[in-house]
Specification:
Number of strands: 8
Structural class: mainly beta
Number of helices: 0
Strand content: over 45%
Order of helices and strands: EEEEEEEE
Strand order of the largest sheet: 4-1-7-8
Largest sheet: 4 strands, mixed
Low-confidence stretches: 1-12
Radius of gyration: 12 Å
Mean pLDDT: 86
Length: 101
């Protein structure tokens, strides 16, 4: 996975929805990230402790993003054109947190 940069804040400008996934545990984690927007995109993220992954997919209007691990999942619907920035999914032991909610 790549590291997040400020370029990700311009997610709506190029017609993409951007989602950040951070491994907040002390062990490597694998997450499945699904973005359902103009097209559906599914990516597997293998993240080291503390690593932030960036997933992007074409978007038009409302987008639903979901992150699944073996232990938990979380989802969020948002509009990339009006969001102040990309949502952040944080992997924790036994759960997945999402911000903003």
């Amino acid at each position: 996975m790549s590291t997040y940069t400020a370029a990700g804040d311009r997610m709506a400008a190029d017609g993409r929805a951007v989602v950040l996934v951070r491994n907040g545990t002390t062990e490597p984690r694998t997450a499945t990230v699904v973005i359902d927007g103009a097209e559906s995109a599914t990516r597997n993220a293998d993240l080291s402790p503390g690593e932030v992954g960036v997933v992007a997919a074409p978007a038009a209007g409302q987008v639903t993003a979901a992150v699944h691990t073996d232990e938990a999942s979380a989802s969020l619907s948002f509009d990339p054109e009006t969001a102040s920035g990309p949502p952040l999914f944080a992997l924790r032991p036994g759960r997945v947190l999402v911000s903003p909610e």
